[in-house]
Amino acid sequence: MNIPTASTPDLEGLRKAVQEFRPNPHRVPFNDLKPVHEFIADLRKRNISYASITELLQQHGVKTSRARVAEYGRIILDGGKSRKRRKRAKPMPVVDVPAAPQHAPTADAKPAPTTTPAAVTSNAPPPAKENSSYTSRGPRIAKVAMMSPEEAAELDAFLKSESAPKP
Questions:
Q1: Alpha-carbon distance 27 to 42, whole Å?
Q2: Domain boundaries of the chain, sorted by first residue
Q3: Could you tell me how far CA 27 lies from the centroid of its own chain?
Q4: Exposed, middle or buried: residue 53 (CB in 10 Å: 0-12, 13-18, 19+)?
């Protein structure tokens, strides 16, 4: 009798084991649904839902689930067709715009034009730029804390003129 050692595998014994191997029937895909293939195919041709097919099979003693019957229908009946997926919207390409350097204004330089107070208090969204991925999410509200002293004084004067009684 040959006793296999660790260095020499028993190829004849392995060949015999492979030929005699039987997988666990519970691990074979759709093993429980193969006997009722014709019934499932006929019901699907009549556009019966997978939930209804599952309910009918369970009433007649077949242990299965709706998801399993649906998977069986997609893979076996439909030939592995993939399900339709919703297409995602393609994001707009982001354009790298170099940031302009921010310097403190000098006395010789002209001050930058300020926005009028009417524009600050307006509820209109800013116009969309051509290559911008910006989408409006509602009105923009001025942050008074971020205004320059000149802009704050101009806004204050505007608001006082609006609230003054008219003759």
A1: 26
A2: 17-77
A3: 33
A4: buried
Q: Could you read off the pLDDT of 43-91 as tens digits, one per residue?
A: 999 999 999 999 999 999 988 889 989 988 888 887 766 666 777 777 7
Query: What is the reported pTM?
Result: 0.37
- The answer to whether residues 50 and 66 touch, using CB atoms and an 8 Å cutoff, is yes
Cα torsion at 31, 35, 36, 41 (round to 10°)?
80
CB proximity list for 64: less than 8 A, separation 6 or greater:
32, 33, 54, 57, 58
**8-10-11-15 Cα dihedral, nearest 10 degrees:** -160
- What is the rounded radius of gyration, in angstroms, for the C-alpha atoms of the chain? 38
d(CA 156, CA 164): 12
